[in-house]
Design a protein that fits this description.
Layout lengths: L2 H12 L29 H20 L11 H16 L1
Length: 91
């Protein structure tokens, strides 16, 4: 999987995914000042778990000589993760 595909996957499926609540807990919606519900998305640690799940098989394949492609964890992906971390920190 190329770096661009990893970034596309994260952007479309992971970065804006809401946190799933337990089905056993009562849902209590927290509201903003404007009356809008607060939408919580996944944190940077969980996003890094997704990245590791993608990069680990690549590393194994690379060590066996089965994958000759460049690493999917390049500078663009690192910038995306840094931007996500700093944006969450600002909030």
């Amino acid at each position: 999987m190329s770096e661009n595909k990893v970034i596309l996957f994260l952007t479309e499926r992971v970065l804006d995914r809401e946190i799933r609540t337990s089905r056993h807990k009562k849902k209590s919606l927290q509201m903003t000042v404007d009356g809008e519900p607060i939408r919580q998305t996944l944190g940077i640690d969980i996003i890094k778990v997704y990245v590791v799940a993608i990069v680990d098989p690549y590393s194994f394949q690379k060590s066996k000589g089965l994958n000759l492609h460049p690493t999917p964890r390049g500078e663009a992906l690192n910038r995306l993760l840094r931007a996500r971390k700093t944006n969450k920190h600002k909030k």
